[in-house]
From TrEMBL:
Signal peptide: none annotated. The keyword Secreted does not apply. It comes from Nocardioides cavernaquae. This is isochorismate synthase. Keywords: Isomerase.
Length: 423
């Protein structure tokens, strides 16, 4: 269902190339963001930022992806686009964040008034409508003030009880894996400027995708899907160990993770779900047999990069691929329908847009959609932080609680009033 859509029916779009130094400068694209409706999708200093709202749609229900895709098709068909850069992410671009479940929740696609992109040696600015963009370093954001954390929907004890229930259901043969999440509330004494946590996340987690769309922000290590000129890629994660802070112990842990049958089993479900969902759209695929260990500052993950070539005849957009892949077993479970039902039944929390596709798409359908993990939802002076864990037959509730705490760390630290990182 389309809940609302705003913006002129015919957008006037201009993309021109700019000096890479203007885009990256001393400190990066995030420094260009003003306070008005900033959006971002950045990794290692490259990607897209934008601000202002030229057009937006809100959708809901089981047709939230297809309604948004239809709106995008109409918007791009009517737009007058002059693009002198012709790269994925130049020309007309929307940013989006989708609800995890069919109900409740709202999804959105937004077209910023100004978008600045950087890819290798190229940089560009896109304007939508009559705007004269300011490409200058803005006044830095102030750190959040007086942040206190409190329990979300369930306290730790109750959440461990829910994990134990899930383990019992798995061992009774109802399903193989389910991902259970919890939330944590951060309340500040004044409204929080999202640009602060974005800078912290981009500096501390450069190998993750630092995103912000409509209040949902984070630094996700997991790429649900990228479509770029007929090639599709996905980074699948599942299987986690907390880092200790001691490099040699962490190396030993990485070796343990790579051989842990519990984690390999969890991982296998996640890779299989992605490969099976992509297969109908691909003429060939590469699915590595063995995962690698992805090192992040807070955790280690088992990771697999799946790649494929889209069938010639298929004009499937990155958003349609994201819909086909969501929810993968990395955030839902196996089998998916049973896992989704169990999540609704026992998780005791509304996921909102957590663990669902977040990212961007251009007029050709190329784009990148991450899974909104290591994320929080900002509303004024409050952030709801989310973290989840894959549960299988031999999961231990206390270990899963500790894993969820490690997954809160990126956003939790990003809300701390430490010194602004020099990125
Ligand atoms: C659900 C989350 O993470 C997912 C679950 C993982 C696991 O259970 O090992 C690992 C990476 C993600 O696919 C989260 O970060 O909230």
């Amino acid at each position: 269902m389309i809940l609302s859509s705003e913006g002129p029916s015919a957008l006037r779009v201009r993309t021109t190339s700019i000096d890479v130094d203007t885009a990256s400068g001393m400190s990066g694209l995030l420094d260009l963001l003003p306070t008005e409706a900033p959006v971002s999708w950045l990794r290692r200093g490259e990607g897209l930022v934008g601000w202002g709202i030229a057009a937006q749609v809100h959708t809901s229900g089981s047709t939230r992806f297809s309604d948004a895709a239809k709106w995008w098709a109409e918007t791009t068909a009517q737009a007058d686009i002059t693009d002198e850069v012709q790269e994925p992410g130049s020309g007309l671009v929307c940013f989006g964040a989708f609800a995890f479940a069919d109900e409740p929740g709202e999804s959105t696609l937004v077209v910023p008034q100004v978008i600045v992109g950087r890819r290798g040696d190229l940089a560009w600015v896109t304007t939508v409508g009559d705007v004269a963009p300011t490409l200058a370093r803005r006044e830095p954001p102030a750190p959040p003030k007086g942040v206190v954390f409190s329990d979300g929907a369930l306290d730790s004890e109750r959440w461990m009880g829910v994990v134990a229930d899930a383990v019992a259901r798995i061992n009774a043969g109802d399903l193989e894996k389910v991902v259970l999440a919890r939330d944590l509330l951060a309340t500040a004494s004044e409204p929080i400027d999202v640009r602060w946590p974005l800078r912290q996340l981009a500096a501390s987690y450069p190998t993750c995708w630092t995103f912000h769309v409509d209040g949902l922000f984070g630094a996700t290590p997991e790429l649900l899907v990228r479509r770029e000129r007929g090639l599709v890629t996905s980074r699948v994660l599942a299987g986690t160990i907390r880092r200790t802070g001691d490099d040699s112990r962490d190396l030993a842990l990485a070796a343990m993770l790579a051989h842990s049958s519990k984690d390999l089993e969890e991982h296998e479900y996640a890779v299989r779900s992605v490969a099976e969902s992509l297969e109908p759209y691909c003429s060939s695929m590469n699915v590595p047999e063995t995962p690698f260990v992805l090192h992040l500052p807070n955790v280690l993950h088992l990771a697999t990069d799946v790649a494929g070539v889209i069938r010639d005849t298929d004009d499937v957009s990155s958003l349609q691929l994201a819909e086909a892949l969501h929810p993968s077993a990395a955030v839902g479970g196996t089998p998916t329908p049973v896992a989704r039902e169990l999540i609704t039944e026992i998780e005791g929390m509304d996921r909102g847009r957590y663990a669902a596709p977040v990212g961007w798409m251009d007029a050709s359908g190329d784009g990148e959609w991450g899974i909104a993990l290591r994320s929080g939802l900002l509303d004024g002076d409050t952030v709801r932080l989310f973290a989840g864990c894959g549960i299988v037959g031999d999961s231990d509730p206390a270990a899963e609680l500790a894993e969820s705490q490690a997954k809160f760390v990126p956003v939790r630290d990003a809300l701390a009033p430490g010194p602004a990182p020099t990125s």
